Amino acid sequence: MTARISLDPPRSLLFRAVSWYSNRTFGKVIDPLRATAHHTGVLWAGARFELAVGRWKKLDPQLKALAVMGAAATVGCSWCIDFGYWENHRHGMAPHKLRDVPVWQESDVYTPLERDVLAYAEAMTLTPPQVGDELVERLRTSLGEAALVELTTVVSVENMRSRTNSALGLTSQGFRDRCEVGRPPAESRHDPAADH
Question: Which domain holds residue 16?
Answer without folding.
Answer: 10-55
